[in-house]
Design goal:
This protein is of the alpha/beta class and 259 residues long. It has 8 helices and 7 strands; from the N terminus they run βαβαβαβαβαβαααβ. The chain starts with 12 loop residues before the first strand and ends in a 7-residue tail after the last strand.
Length: 259
């Protein structure tokens, strides 16, 4: 086996939430190029179909699933349906976002819960179900949770609070799950992306150009990241190349958190 063989994902099936757009799309395509079949979960049938086609063009199978995992009851139903149809070897909990820009003193309980369900509850439910199935069947697996540098630092001039809290919790959830399942050969790691110019951030840039400009100036490499840069890291964490890594929160942010 060569060093590059350890990055292969042949005969593996990936389940990824929010897998048809932005960072999720790039991770889906990267894992497909490494050999994985992909179960894509997302809210838009059109974007799911488009990404599924790109996966199939890479010689892998794609299984698009329309659903909203930010709704706990729907997330549980989707999880059980997928597990009844597929043997999942890799889970990437990618779905998430800020969605609101509300000062702490104005944020409602409903807004708070909405973001926690989106970023954290969906992660808990899918990790519980998919990781639990891996453990019950006595087979190894890998789980990658997409957290954020916002779980490590406090963001200035951006309202919400629940986003930062949910991403910090995602990092700690990753660590505790990793410890509990280490002996079961189920590895759990997190990726903490910094600023990537995805579609939501492109919209954010138009609505809040001063915030985006300020953020860009604080990145040592001088610019937002390209979404394609996340694909190789996802493949690494999903593959045997990272066989001795679990409970890690890997930062990819152009050096932002160094300053």
């Amino acid at each position: 086996m060569t060093i590059l063989d350890r990055f292969r994902l042949d005969q593996k099936t990936l389940l990824i939430t929010g897998g048809s757009k932005g960072l999720g799309r790039e991770m889906s395509l990267a894992c497909a190029e490494a050999g994985a079949d992909v179960v894509l979960v997302g809210r838009s049938a059109d974007s799911l179909a488009s990404t599924a086609k790109e996966i199939e063009e890479r010689g892998r199978r794609a299984f698009p699933v329309v659903g909203d995992v930010s709704r706990p009851a729907e997330c549980e139903q989707l999880s059980q349906k997928i597990l009844s149809e597929h043997r999942i070897d890799i889970l990437i909990n990618n779905v998430g976002g800020r969605r609101i820009n509300v000062p702490l003193e104005e944020q409602t309980l409903e807004q708070w819960q909405q973001i926690l369900d989106l970023n954290l509850t969906s992660m808990f439910l899918l990790t519980r179900d998919v990781g639990g199935r891996m453990k019950a069947e006595g087979r190894p697996g890998t789980i990658v949770n997409i957290a954020s540098i916002s779980g490590l630092v406090a963001n200035a001039n951006i309202g919400g609070v629940s986003y930062e809290v949910s991403k910090a919790a995602a990092i700690q959830f990753t660590r505790t799950a990793a410890v509990q399942w280490a002996k079961d050969r189920i590895r759990v790691n997190a990726i903490c992306p910094g600023g990537f110019m995805t579609e939501p951030n492109q919209r954010w840039a138009k609505e809040h150009p001063q915030v985006v400009e300020q953020f860009s100036q604080m990145i040592p490499v001088g610019a937002y990241g390209d979404p394609e840069d996340l694909g190789p890291l996802a493949v690494y964490l999903a593959s045997d190349a990272s066989a001795y890594m679990t409970g890690a929160a890997v930062v990819i942010d152009g050096g932002y958190t160094l300053c």
